[in-house]
Task: structure prediction
Amino acid sequence: MRTGRPTGGKKAAFALLLAGAAAALLGGCAGMEGVTSSLLSPSGGLSRADAEAITATARTVAKSLEQISPEQEYYVGRAVGAVVLGRYPVYSDERATAYVNLLGQTLAAASDRPETFRGYHFLILDSDEINAFAAPGGLIFVTRGILRCARSEDGVAAILAHEIAHVQEKHGLQAIKKSRLTTAVTSVALTAAQTLGPDALAELTTLFDDSIRDITSTLTNSGYSRSFEREADRGAVMILQRVGYDPRALVDVLEVMGEKLEPKGLDFAKTHPDPAQRIKVVEKAVGEAPSPPPAPAARRERCEAALGGI
Amino acid sequence: MQRSVRRVFCLLLVLAAALELSAAPPKMMSVTVEQTQARAAPSFLGRIVADLEYGDRVEVLEEKNSWARIVMSGETGDTAEAWVHMSALTTKRVVLKAGDVDVGRTASSAEVALAGKGFNEQVEAEYRAQMDLDYAWVDRMEEITVSWEEIRTFLAEGGLTALSGGE
Result:
């Protein structure tokens, strides 16, 4: 995805946007807060003090998520990825891996958030479990088991698009307990030194560890909220439509999943809403949109060549 | 080269302050990803005009379908416009080194992102040491690259749509 380093001329030219930069600094930055004031409007039973407290909390939380920079998100994502990879072996088939990366990065480019700190990357886990994980920042893992639920490239795209939508909406970061975020923000704001002192490092590392646990336990045990899953399914439909895939392929995948999942299984059955419910969400999101033309032979063949043996 | 660029930047800052620019300030944004490209058209398949790096400041002329039209000034005073996807930009100023500005005094944390601060490489190293985690595959998967040319071919051969990168 990344191309070569900048050439000197272009780079220098770019850095010359200076007068403008200076003016912006002098003019001050526009405030980022768009906190709703509706909480303060008269409503039954909520005192003004309560309302103000809620608004203040909302403002703090909103600021906190905003404060996790893409760079910090990247380090969180790497750690989540390392934890996932500590639990599952990698299916290192080169052709299959290259294919899911080509397909995945194509889909990510059509998402609402095509750019993350170091981009999207995909890996197949050598497991029969029906499962997939999206680490913040764009490291995405899918098991062989879930890929077997797809009967076409459109289906594989649907699986990857759902995970990309989780990254796009920062669902992983939102799994971090809010209290930690505010602490993290404070530390970030105060840590202006070139390197962290031992106390700051210890504090941040503990915070980091706790944050990673929040995310991994959500990914592997409790699952996201139903509303996050709905959001990811709707996001997937949008991505699929933009690229020209049939969003109904997500329904096909969910149907196969519904047949294969064991109700008390430790995989998607545990962390995701019932496929039948998700199908309703997807069908509603697709609505009356016309189906794209059928997949050409080349699309079917390349999927079969890459994942036929999955 | 980087250093001389920074020096010019600082010089112009002083110059601008002296002139007390009174016109409405142009909208400036910072690149918030490690690397991205400015393109001739608002599409990932548009021709690449320049590469941008973390912390680069750009002047945004308009936003259209999640793409920002930016202006670039050349060495001879000529200007050129290009497009960058909004997800690569932030309204905050990205401070690459803590010493670049007096962060605590001149700007609130809401306006500044300190590059390399908070959860960073140092925290990762400490965390890895404590947890005994193997990052080998994480590093390997990050090395997997796909070129825009490959994506273009993939779309064309698959009978798919050209991308605009978010609407």
Observations:
- Chain A touches chain B through 102 residues (CB under 8 Å).
- Strands of chain A lie at 121-125, 132-135, 139-143.
- The radius of gyration of chain A is 22 Å.
- The first strand of chain A starts at residue 121 and ends at 125.
